[in-house]
Amino acid sequence: MKIFAFLFILLFTNLGFCQNPFYVSIDKTSGLPSNSVYDILQDSKGFMWFATGKGICRYDGSTFKTFSSDEQTSKSGSCLVEDGFGRIWYSNFDGYLYYVEKNVLKSLKQPTSLGYFRFGIIKDELFLLQPNMVLVYDLRTLKVKSKIKISDKQISFSYASPEKFYILGASLYEFNDSKTYTKHPLPNKFYDEINGSIMNYWDHKLIINSKSNNIYYSFKDGEFTRNALNTTTNFNQNTSIVNNTIWICTTNGIIKNDLDSKETISYFADQNISYLFRDNHKNYWISTLNKGILFIEDFENNYIDIQPRPLTLSLGKNEIYIGAEKDLVYKLNFKKLVTEKILKRKTIMLQVKFLLTP
Fold first, then answer.
1. Taking the CB of residue 274, how many other CB atoms lie within 10 A of it?
2. Cis, peptide link before residue 358, omega less than 30° from 0
3. Are 200 and 239 spatial neighbours (Cβ–Cβ below 8 Å)?
4. How far apart are CA 168 and CA 154, in angstroms?
5. How far apart are CA 131 and CA 264, in angstroms?
6. CA–CA distance from 238 to each of 163, 211, 250, 276, 309 (Å)?
């Protein structure tokens, strides 16, 4: 019974390719406002939030609620964050900030925009990058409490860890609060190797990846350490770090890199991946730029896609014979989870009968 229950999931689905984990697709047909999804967040109440091409939405597991406002300069955006007051924030790709409070989308009063850069929320303060300065807002009043001038005009990336806000330019700026920051010189030839940067946080260290190669730097206590992943891609869109694993999101799938063992595994080579998020129940949510969300309970539950559609099953000793449309027959090896197309059905039926005879 377990074998056939497994095969029902394994074979009677038209999703994915061999060796991908079993997943459920959440897209416009499910109520998602757009199949372009850029960011994912789970709030303190357990709701899932998605930043999409049509704005941000909240998902309760069955229905979606989309939030919009006439004050928005555009709706597409990213950088979903929950503050200590239960408000959900995001920035649109024009660089303007919005937040949901009491089921209403509101805009933050800001003088201008430098374009899209990640903002940061550290305790009761919000850090916002502006031309030649950083504005620090008091989250209680949503008023500017501090203006910190910075000299760099060419900013590469900004990022907030649980305790600090970072800006990467000609130097690395490390903000501890609204009054103090430290300016760290970058390693020699840093930008020769980090061509386009992505920042993340792991094991109390800031992680700076390159968008075009496998080099990354870790930063802790004022020191940079150069590292390299075991895999190289043409273009890295984003990174997500879960425990000791960094997931590289690319236009051709997602790559799992174990930072300790250096083992790498690739999934969903046919998908344009923007982000990976693991929720409080250890489920995985993968956002794509054209096919919505992929929901995965366990990466160990693989399935195999059979085309054309399977119709009948016959159990052998170490394999299953699968009768499919167009008079095709496949053999599935239990141990290797590999399918092999063998013969047309009219020819193979006697062979199947012989194999199943004691």
1. 24
2. no
3. yes
4. 9
5. 40
6. 21, 8, 7, 9, 35
pLDDT per residue, tens digit, the chain (358 aa), is: 333 434 444 433 333 334 688 899 999 999 999 999 999 999 999 999 999 999 999 999 999 999 999 999 999 999 999 999 999 999 999 999 999 999 999 999 999 999 999 999 999 999 999 999 999 999 999 999 999 999 888 899 999 999 999 999 999 999 988 888 999 999 999 999 998 999 999 999 999 999 999 999 999 999 999 999 988 788 899 999 998 899 999 999 999 999 888 889 999 999 999 999 999 999 999 999 999 999 999 887 666 666 676 677 777 767 777 777 777 887 777 565 566 777 654 444 444 444 444 4
For residue 52, give the nearest of 93, 24, 15 by alpha carbon: 93
Identity of the amino acid at 347: T
